[in-house]
């Protein structure tokens, strides 16, 4: 059954135009050229619905597996390093990949933590520079149910230990966004001594 979920995930990524910008086992994300689902209000800018944005998608196969005894500091540090390195490579790619030209913001929705839950995930994404808000789905409760079911299935297929702390009935999605200008300021070559 896990192989079916994984195969469906690969199919859906291809269908939605999710692509690899850095083919390395340490890369934490894949990306997708998409449109802002609604008006994005960020600390440094506002973007109308329909603006060109870069969707961030966790690369499930590359996410560190949670050991049976649960997460630990070493895993948290490795994850943080992977995310930051992935962002630094993405900042470089944004200068060279014509598909990313004109992208105004980066982000998307996740079920890994809920906005305001004061979890490690929320704290990490705040430190990384993202603005978080409750998920706004155009499909209402019906759509959110299916999105949550899909997220739950991915967690079960790739990192089942994570479900110990997440009941399906209590999954909440959170939107995380950052302007391109802020992203490049934080992770671009100028921010890191012209790497």
Top keywords for this entry?
five-stranded mixed β-sheet, two-stranded antiparallel ribbon, 7 strands, alpha+beta, 195 residues
Can you tell me about this structure?
- This protein has 195 residues and is α+β, with helices and mostly antiparallel strands.
- The protein contains five helices and seven strands, in the order H-E-E-E-E-H-E-H-E-H-E-H.
- The strands form two sheets. It has a five-stranded mixed sheet with strand order 1-4-5-7-6. The protein has a two-stranded antiparallel ribbon with strand order 2-3.
- The longest helix has 24 residues, at 73-96.
- The protein is globular and about 40 Å long.
- The chain starts with a helix and ends in an 8-residue tail after the last helix.
